Amino acid sequence: MKIEGIIVQGKQLGRTIGFPTANLRADRREGEGPNGVYAAWFYVDGHKLPCMVNIGHHPTLPGGGETVEAHIFDFSEDIYGKEVIDITKYGLAENKIILGEDEYFVMGDNRNHSSDSRDPSVGVLKRDRLIGRAWIRVYPLDNFEVF
After folding, report:
1. Which of 25, 29, 30, 68 is most buried by its number of CB atoms within 10 A?
2. Total domains present in the chain
3. pTM score, two decimals?
4. Are residues 20 and 66 in the same domain?
């Protein structure tokens, strides 16, 4: 799948937690895939840069409509203009997960074969099943903390 469009300014929430994204107003798509998080290549000024791309809704943000956003790894330049994203693999991060009072989400690395709480064989964990301690909290965004 390829997506082509114009980089536009978004809400700039990702940069507050160290993950700035390039928001793409998608003008053209070649091939279709499901909404989700993809491993991709982002082409900027003739350079092929690795990135992750979210295509779909923001299930955890208020007013989160349909978007195409790319986090380009180790890249911090301002880029506005026509760019191409070449999608290579997709993940499973499109669906919102609601946790109970005593439940915890196990974070994987978002590859299709990563075993985290989105995988039914893992699921969410109850507190009495956890060994160790949390060392970082990233959500809610205004309460980001390293312990």
Report:
1. 68
2. 2
3. 0.56
4. yes
Q: How far apart are CA 94 and CA 35, in angstroms?
A: 6
SS3 state at 29: strand
- Tell whether 59 and 130 lie within a shared domain: no
Cis peptide before 59 (omega within 30 of 0): no
* Segments forming the whole domain that contains residue 117: 99-147
User: In 3-state terms, what secondary structure has residue 135?
Assistant: coil
85 and 108 in a single domain? The answer is no
Checking 119-127 for CB contacts under 8 A at 24+ apart, the result is 124/97, 124/99, 124/100, 126/102, 127/102, 127/103
Distances (CA, A) of 55 to 104, 120, 124, 146: 25, 23, 24, 29
pLDDT by residue for the chain (147 residues), tens only, comes to 777 777 887 777 777 777 788 888 776 566 666 777 788 888 877 778 888 888 887 666 666 667 888 888 888 787 877 676 776 655 555 566 778 888 888 776 655 556 677 666 777 888 888 888 778 877 777 888 888
Q: Which residue has the tokens 């009072």?
A: 101
Judge if 54 and 78 occupy the same domain.
yes
What letter represents residue 138's amino acid? V
